[in-house]
Structures are given as structure tokens and as C-alpha cells.
């Protein structure tokens, strides 16, 4: 038996995020703040600020934060990557990163860091893996009720967690799920 790099986008994402956190905590303190944190306000002339709209999903504040996100990503990502393909999953992740970053800049006075928007995108998207024409999966409805309702309730608390990114990621994952199911039916 040999070990196979079975989900290149998911595994590369996890390795990259782990490396960034390791570097931030050892040789390059401030790395996360400099390149992987979406600030509440963007400088329109700053290329780095635009880059952060993509890279904030790679940066994490600590190992607990990273493990919380990547336990889901490593569980769901390979299934989604096999179903939709590496390129499609990468595009969905990039769109989710940019949209959650932009929404945060436009509507919230706080910074954004981490891959939780990607996590919730994957959670909702995975509920579409066995969708059939003319049906809405009960798993999708239950996930919406359980996770998004919890996030809406959590958003009423004062903490450092961006429930807004969770909700936005879930909505984006739902849209991807519906779009992918319609695309498959069109073939």
C-alpha cells in the first residue's frame, strides 16, 4: 500500500494554512497580520489589501482556530473534490473567500481571518451530493436549520467569531449546490 495525495486542492490548502501559522508563530511574527487578515477598511490603492480578500482563508489566529476549520475541511473537501473536480472546488473556494472578504469590508467594522466561510460553504454544498431532479434534499434543509440558525443566534453574542462569514459561506455553498445540480441536469 502507498499513500496517495488524493485531494490536491484540499490537502494543499491545509498544508499552506499550517505552514503560514507555523511561520507566523516562529520565524515571521506578524506574517498573518500583514498578509492574511482582511481589515475593516481597505485602502483602494493597496494591492496587498486586494490580495487579502483571497488569502484571509489561509491565515488563522492559533492552532485551535486552524484545527477547528480544517477538521471539517479535511473531512468534506476530498468528497467535494471527487464529486466536482479539483478545479471547480478551487474556484468555489476562491469565490467564497472573496465574497466573504468583500462583505466583511462593506458591512462590518471588524477584521476577518480564517477559513470558516469555506467550512460553511462545504457543509451546505455537501448536502447536495446526491440531489435528484425536482427534489430538494432533506439533508440540505436540516443543515440549514441546524447550522445557519445556530449562526444567526450566535451572531447576537459579542465575540471574535465572524458568524457573518459562516452565514455568507453557507449561502454561497447553497448557491453552488443548486447551480451544480442544474448544470448536471442540463447535460
UniProtKB/TrEMBL annotation:
Membrane topology note: Multi-pass membrane protein
Domain of life: Bacteria
InterPro entries documented for this protein: Peptidase_S54_rhomboid_dom, Rhomboid-like_sf
Ranges where the Peptidase S54 rhomboid domain occurs: 50-181
Primary location: membrane
Pfam families for this protein: Rhomboid
Cell location: Membrane
Gene3D superfamilies: Rhomboid-like (1.20.1540.10)
Any one GO MF annotation of this record: serine-type endopeptidase activity
Chain segments annotated as transmembrane: 64-80, 87-107, 113-131, 138-156, 162-179
Alphabetically ordered keywords of this record: Membrane, Transmembrane, Transmembrane helix
Transport keyword on record: no
GO cellular component, one term: membrane
Record-linked PANTHER family: RHOMBOID-RELATED PROTEIN
The name this protein goes by in its record: Rhomboid family protein
Amino acid at each position: 500500500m502507498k499513500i496517495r495525495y488524493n485531494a490536491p486542492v484540499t490537502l494543499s490548502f491545509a498544508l499552506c494554512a499550517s505552514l503560514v501559522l507555523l511561520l507566523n508563530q516562529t520565524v515571521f511574527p506578524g506574517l498573518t497580520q500583514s498578509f492574511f487578515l482582511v481589515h475593516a477598511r481597505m485602502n483602494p490603492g493597496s494591492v496587498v489589501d486586494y490580495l487579502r480578500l483571497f488569502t484571509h482563508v489561509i491565515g488563522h489566529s492559533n492552532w485551535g482556530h486552524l484545527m477547528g476549520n480544517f477538521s471539517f475541511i479535511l473531512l468534506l473537501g476530498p468528497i467535494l473534490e471527487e464529486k466536482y473536480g479539483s478545479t471547480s472546488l478551487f474556484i468555489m473556494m476562491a469565490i467564497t473567500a472573496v465574497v466573504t472578504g468583500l462583505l466583511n469590508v462593506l458591512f462590518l467594522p471588524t477584521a476577518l481571518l480564517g477559513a470558516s466561510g469555506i467550512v460553511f460553504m462545504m457543509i451546505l454544498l455537501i448536502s447536495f451530493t446526491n440531489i435528484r431532479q425536482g427534489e430538494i434534499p432533506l439533508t440540505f434543509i436540516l443543515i440549514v436549520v441546524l447550522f445557519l440558525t445556530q449562526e444567526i443566534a450566535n451572531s447576537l453574542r459579542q465575540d471574535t467569531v465572524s458568524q457573518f462569514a459562516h452565514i455568507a459561506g453557507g449561502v454561497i455553498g447553497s448557491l453552488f449546490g443548486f447551480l451544480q445540480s442544474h448544470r448536471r441536469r442540463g447535460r
